[in-house]
Amino acid sequence: MSTPSRPSRPSTADPQVMALSGGAAVGGARLAVRGWPLKVALSAAFVGLLAASAWVSVPFFPVPLTLQTLAVLLAGATLGPVWGASTVFSYVSLGLAGAPVFHNGTGGPAILLGPTGGYLVGFVAAAYVMGFAVQHVRRAGAMASWRGLLQLAAGAVAASAVIYAVALPWLSHFPQMGLGRAVAVGMTPFLLGDALKAAVAVGAIRTGSALWGRVSGGLF
Q1: 54 within domain boundaries
Q2: Is residue 159 part of a domain?
C-alpha cells in the first residue's frame, strides 16, 4: 500500500524563489539608495530651522530665550535618534566654524566656550533622547493612544532635562555663578516656555505621525 505523497515545498534553490528573494533585496537596496537624498535634504532643512529659531530671541542674561529647544525636539522626533542627533551636531559644528547660526546671528568658538555652550552641547543629546522616545512609541503602535501620549510627553521632558544636565554645571563654572545661581538664571525663567514648547512638539508629532510615515517610508 503506497503512502500518499505530501506536496513538496519550494526549495530555497528553486529559481522562482531565488528570483523573488533577489528582487526583494534589490528593491530594498533601491529604497535605501533613494532614502539617502531624502535624509540629507531633511537634515539640511533642520539645520536651517535650528539657525532660524536662534534668531527668535529674547535677551535674557546670560542665557537668551530662543525657540531652539522646540527645533531640537522636532529634529529628533522627525529624523530619529541617530540622524536627529547628527543633524544637531552638524548645526553646532557649523556655528563653531564661524557661521552666524547661533542666537542673534553669532557664531565662532567663543560662543561654544561661553556661558551658553553647555546648552548647545546638550541639544545634541536631547535630539537623541526625543528621537528614541518617538521611535519607541511608533514601533509599539501606540502613537494615537493615551499611553503613547504620556510616553511622548515623558520623552520631551527627559530631553529638556538632558539639556539642563549639561548646561547648568557648564554655566556654574563661570565667574560669580555657582550651581544655585546657574539654576536661578539658566533654568527657572525658561521652565514655562519649555513646557509650552514640549506641548507643541508632542502635538505636532502626534498630528503628523501618519503623514510622515507615508512620506518617509520608514527610513528613520
Answers
A1: yes
A2: yes
Which pTM value belongs to this model? Answer: 0.80
pLDDT of amino acid 162: 97
Does residue 62 have a cis peptide bond before it, meaning omega lies within 30 degrees of 0?
Answer: yes
Give the C-alpha separation, 2 to 189, whole Å: 86
Q: How far is CA 119 from its chain centroid?
A: 15
Cα–Cα distance between 20 and 160 in angstroms, integer?
47
For residue 136, being part of any structural domain is answered with yes
21, 156, 179, 200 from 59: Cα distances, Å: 59, 24, 21, 22
**Per-residue b/e over 156-191, b at no fewer than 16 CB within 10 Å?**
bbebbebbbebbbebbbeeeebeeeebeebbbeebe
- Give me the domain span that covers residue 73: 41-216
Q: What is the pLDDT of residues 164-194, one digit of tens each?
A: 999 999 999 998 889 999 999 999 999 999 9
Answer yes or no: are the C-beta atoms of 112 and 95 closer than 8 Å.
yes
φ, ψ of residue 65 to 5 degrees: the values are -90, 125
